[in-house]
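Hi L.,

You mentioned the student needs an example of a multi-chain input paired with its predicted structure. This one should do, with 393 residues in total across all chains.
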Amino acid sequence: MPNARDIASICAAAGADMPSDTRPLSAPIYQSSVFEIDSLETVDDLYEGRAEGFIYSRDSNPNVSILEKVVAQLENADDSVAFASGMAAIGITLLSMVESGNRIVAGSELYGGTNLMLRQHLSKLGVETQFVDTTDLDAVEQTLDSQPRLILVESITNPLLRLTDIESISQMAHQRGVQVVVDNTLASPLLLRPLELGADVTLHSATKNLGGHSDVTGGVAAARADITMAMRQSNRVWGSVLDPFAAWLIVRGIKTLPLRVEKACENAFAVAQFLSDHPKISAVHYPGLPDHPQHKLAVDTLGGRFGWMVTFELAGGGRSASSFVKGLDMIKLAASLGEAQTTISHPAKTSHRSLTGDEQAVLGIRNGLIRLSCGIESASDILADLASALAKS
Ligand SMILES: *Cc1c(COP(=O)(O)O)cnc(C)c1O
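Structure written out for the whole complex:
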């Protein structure tokens, strides 16, 4: 013990690092908002890039940096930036790329929150969005002719699981100087890496498959270094940074991502086949089925897997959906996806609730539509639960 200190000083200094000649195999959680710097000379070295280190956690934090490095590797990018949520990843990415007067082209089947952001929030900043069916390449090309700043698409859309031809869209966009931003949440970097197909930015809600355990909210975006530098600056200024513990949980999730994706895709394949033969099901949307409108694109681009999501329609409509949901036992109703557990959601009542009935109808979101996100349970238990709930529906 150095000099005895007053109890108030002991309390204030509590929680400093433990000196040790060994290192933990799993990075500790650096739950520190600020870092001690040894001298004013080091302050200069840190700011001028001659020393490496952390200063203040809104600028950078070890756990957040560990996550950013692994996501950059997974997406084959120069760098990536972590955010407090998937919505923050989308919002800050867009804010860092557009200015007032710019236009955005976006897929007409985007995630409900993204749609709301574009229509009601970015529009207030003088950034207008034109929506287009991204499966119709001629329609996409026409919208690109008017030279928007960027096009925002989802690699696999939600809930109808349509695919976007990122390679063709990137070619058309780049010929016209338009940048391409891809929300890759429903494919994960295991199935698809948009930057390798020509996109400029790929981003994820890490709340879903990257985290994978229904216990953390976060987002990431990966790109070339000049783009991530602008995003990082915006993220610091708007303050939508990820918490160290959240980053740590997402990194822990990523350790098992390949195993989870493999198993969940296998389960989804079995579920899609089971449902397509079932008399109470009127439609199954799954890129692995030969009658899916983009089955060939799925075969060519998803590396032999077709995702962990299956969306289907109950022939009996909304009333059947209600008794089907009540009849499930193992499979839970929950408004998320990409977890270890199999979950279902009802798009009309959750993710697409902010749309009017007419808007839902245009997208094909009816009351009998159920979206299932396969987990890593045994396929036979998932099929048995679905079969027994369908019998009661
Ligand atoms: C969930 C989701 C988001 C939003 O992510 P949060 O982490 O909930 O903010 C964005 N895009 C897609 C495709 C999603 O599934």
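You could point out the following to them. DSSP finds 15 helices and twelve strands in the chain. The pocket of pyridoxal-5'-phosphate is lined by residues 85-87, 111, 113-114, 154, 158, 183, 185-186, 205, 207-208, 217, 219 (CB under 6 Å).

Best wishes,
N.
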